[in-house]
Amino acid sequence: MHKHHSALGLASLHRPVQPVTLLRPHAAQRAARFFAEKFPGRSMYAVKANPSPDLLEILWDSGITHYDVASIAEVRLLARTLPDATLCFMHPVKAEEAIAEAYFIHGVRTFSLDTMEELEKIVRATKGATDLNLCVRIRVSSDHSKLSLASKFGAEPDEMKALLIATRQVADALGICFHVGSQAMTPAAYAEAMERVRAAIVGAAVTVDIVDVGGGFPSTYPGMEPPPLETYFEVIHKAFESLPISYSAELWCEPGRALCAEYASLLVRVEKRRGEELYINDGAYGALFDAAHIGWRFPVKLVRDDASDARDMAFSFYGPTCDDLDHMAGPFMLPADVAAGDYIEIGMLGAYGCAMRTGFNGFGSDLKVIVEDEPMASLYLAQEERRAASNVVKL
Ligand SMILES: Cc1ncc(COP(=O)(O)O)c(C=O)c1O
């Protein structure tokens, strides 16, 4: 893969016609080491956030040995890319064929469930295996998070007793897992969820071997600046230690976004300006799904040889397809003189952005280069380091 120091080097030298993904391996490595060293338990990477094999290899080399996979395609990808990794199939609703293939062909032993039907399915598909780690997912609130995961999955607290007792009978190791929603803006989300876990354990009076606090660990975006990740770890550790099973149980987490948001940004070109609207060459069907559909704001920066001294003003973006839906409201703050032919770096797209792009309408590109400068925002750089880094922008 080609290397440049920064987006500017690439834009000045090559004037790319297609959008280019800028990869920062050092940022993914830093995030992985942070979790591997500081989370008070095991960190497994939620592959859905960004399944690119180059990222998977960086995470593996940086100490992430366990991976949360949610589809048989992700199981196969991991089995191919990191054959020694431990895979945990954490989607609570799986095809029976997928469970059987995961268990018998790829050696997966950890599965999640939130109903008796799913438990029966797992038992059937694995032919009554006795070496299963089964995690029962409990429904918890997403009130503190920007993206809810509270409706679709999770057993209600009053369903947990029967489910835990039944699962205990067939599991080698019994776990409880939850997800507080993505981009949890306060560690209180985990403290509150852990209270539900406590009530479930006490209510069922079973030994629980694994408590998996799921994903939800935040990254940093304009208008969404969370407290330091260490505070999340402290709250989780304290809540875990106070559970009646903590002396014998393992603590797990499944970060997606927090491990890869800083890994990638996107260099786009402005094809047209219409007042406060910029028509750019990537959009809702590309890496900007969240910007279009849930109004997520990403940091932006004009990439020009001679920096503009015009004041910043608010822009919205149109993507390249023919749909009105291909619109990102922003506001995205850029110098007022931005014009067709200019390049813009859009930051913090390593999580979900890159993973969700399509080739709809013939747009989108697979061009990737490695850049060496810092991501446009970071939860892993100290304040002084952020100030010193040329690429870090004010959120
Ligand atoms: C089961 C499970 N674990 C982990 C994650 C990763 O979440 P996040 O990216 O918020 O850390 C998800 C995201 O949807 C998930 O469904």
Automatic annotation (TrEMBL):
One annotated Gene Ontology cellular component of this protein: cytoplasm
Involved pathway(s): Amine and polyamine biosynthesis; putrescine biosynthesis via L-ornithine pathway; putrescine from L-ornithine: step 1/1
Modified residues (N6-(pyridoxal phosphate)lysine): K48
Occurrences of domain Orn/DAP/Arg decarboxylase 2 C-terminal (ranges): 265-346
Residues the record marks as active site: C322 (proton donor)
Family, similarity comment: Belongs to the Orn/Lys/Arg decarboxylase class-II family.
Protein name per its UniProtKB record: ornithine decarboxylase
